[in-house]
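DM from R.C. (forwarded with permission)

"hey, sorry to bug you on a friday — could you get me a structure for this? deadline for the figure draft is monday and I only need the backbone to look sensible"
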Amino acid sequence: MHPNQVIHVDGLRQRYGDHEAVSGVSFEVGEGELFALLGTNGAGKTTTMETLEGFRPAHAGTVRVLGRDPYRERRAVRPQIGIMLQEGGFFNDLTVAETTAHWRGFTPRARPAAEVLALVGLQDRAGVKVRQLSGGQKRRLDLALALLARPRVLFLDEPTTGMDPEARHATWRTVRDLVRDGTTVLLTTHYLEEAEQLADRLAIMHRGAIEQTGTVAEVVAGHGDRISFRVPERLRVRELPLLGGAAADIAVDGGRATATYTVRGDGMQAGLYELLRWADAGGIALDGLHAVAAHGVGGGGAALAVRVSAEDPDGARVRRAEPLE
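My reply, with the result:
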């Protein structure tokens, strides 16, 4: 148990009808700590976050924020927390400054509007209507509103979705500064890079459960990159190549086999080249080829669509695998 525990989750379960979205999740977050929930869409991150924010009661288990039940005692909890939803709602015909002023009217001890807009880099957009903002700028406005109350605890649900790299890095700097000043932050993301940049600790969520919890270094060490493809029916499993000295794991579904290779360290690109050379030499189609990068997402990994073309750096005629945006 963290000596200055701010968030406590023990055996949380949440259901939507017959579907259990969160299955016995437990974790703690200490004062001034940034804890990340990492996983794919549908992993249960947002449902867990919404429970902690007081939007829904827990179906089972214990949830506490600042020592209180965030649903039953939300009048005591809500003034002390800031919430950045995965998708906020705005009045599109208001300007950024008007939107901020509107929210300040509902926020005790609110930061000055100019201060909070400067924190998120929107000071030069104050007179612009919300409808004219880019998706990334709207996310920054979401963050500004979450910071108005000078929260002790900040909930950030996919905070940099839709931001360009410059805005993303600026947001990371803002979050780091908040943590440095003592704010406790719970962040959801499907980018391990984001967790690596920000988190003190993280939990990987997959299909409603936490698979692993620890520091970024501890978690990443157990998750290599993966390469998979559907095995052609004419091919025997023993004919599959070794990639980086590793054999494929075979899964059969509906009579069709899928080969999956786990690649450690920085061997993803080399493994792809090796596989593509092998396929070209044998005239083998790599149906359903996916590169699954550990640094893309937790849980089951981020399946990247693959484009094949061009030549490798050595000039060999192979298909180069590139992630599609």
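R.C.: lifesaver. The chain has nine helices and 16 strands.
me: no worries. The first helix runs from residue 45 to 52.
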